[in-house]
Amino acid sequence: MLTTHAVRHGGPFDREDQRRNAPAEPQRQRKIIHIDMDAFFASVEQRDNPELRGRPVAVGGSRERGVVAAASYEARAFGVRSAMPSVTARRKCPDLIFVKPRFEIYRDASRQLHDIFARYTPLIEPLSLDEAYLDVTDALDGLVSATAIAEEIRAQIHAETNLTASAGVSYNKFLAKLASDHRKPDGLFVITPRVGPQFVETLPVRKFHGVGPATAVKMNRLGIATGLDLKGRSLADLRRHFGKSGSYYYWIARGLDDRPVRADRIRKSVGAENTFFEDLFTFEAAREALQPILDKVWRHGESAGRRGRTITLKVKYADFQQVTRSRTFAAPAAARAELERRSVQLLGQVFPIAKGIRLLGVSLSSLDGEQTRAIPQLQLAL
């Protein structure tokens, strides 16, 4: 009881816990740039086909099934978003033009981007084909200003690819990511150490990288709507409600994030998962809920030019108990339908169930194919 009392009221136990979990103090302040291409897939299609320019475009899916992989800004004005079912997108925008993805073209454009990044720093951490962190603390061209480097990179991207990019500049990865989102599209925003903590306080938690839709709803139910609300919670409280992620939320609410930019990490798996607002109880409902997850897994495997022989199904129940089912095949799935068939077989192994399912996920490992550099494992909430 003494320990609980001390933690709750910020006593010595709380301070010691914070010291153990605080981000390590860097030797000197980093200069981080986050580059995020604007509606990348859709912009490439509009660049290459003049008839699509200025019109609402959705890459992926179809009129009848599937999900939107990317939407042009003209389509986003109607509420069309990536990962949205195609039928929903069509209802929101009757004039929406569906375009089949051309992943080899997107990979070529991505390679051009990384050639540009490499002129300034070897510390490049790609998150996907169109998004990366750059540590320019010791820039190769001798420029001291990270803002000036970001401006040069954006200008070179436009000159060499005829595409636009948004950039965020800050002293850590979390804030650089927030900054790049702040002035989209075709924008640049800088968050300095002086304004970083106050900037975080004003934002809704749903805009925080690492806080998915389901977590944002949970935070809102706990009375946490903004960064300031999150900052008002103790470390112990956040860890009680959010487990290990609670420590991350505690520090980002203070504008602190000591994660380094990690270059040349090889992706070992690719996956997607979704937390449902209502629990699933039947095999039919779970199989239907699996479809957009499979679409996303297949799309990311195709975009990276890699396929996996091992399929793992993740199931989290309403009481947070988690089980996995996995199988390794002699060869990767050759088509999305084959990936679905194998995943549904694994899903059948967990039925019948005695409690509702709150989360489903699918991941591929034992990857083969093109060895794309520096793309870490993806776990993408829908």
UniProtKB/TrEMBL annotation:
Cofactor note: Binds 2 magnesium ions per subunit.
The keyword Chloroplast appears for this protein: no
Cell compartment(s), UniProt: Cytoplasm
Binding site for Mg(2+): D36, D130
GO cellular component: cytosol
Residue span, UmuC domain: 32-212
Name of the top EC class for this enzyme: transferase
Residue numbers annotated as active site: E131
EC number per UniProt: 2.7.7.7
Main function: Poorly processive, error-prone DNA polymerase involved in untargeted mutagenesis. Copies undamaged DNA at stalled replication forks, which arise in vivo from mismatched or misaligned primer ends. These misaligned primers can be extended by PolIV. Exhibits no 3'-5' exonuclease (proofreading) activity. May be involved in translesional synthesis, in conjunction with the beta clamp from PolIII.
Known partners and oligomeric status: Monomer.
Name of the protein: DNA polymerase IV
Organism this protein belongs to: Methylocapsa palsarum
Gene name per UniProt: dinB
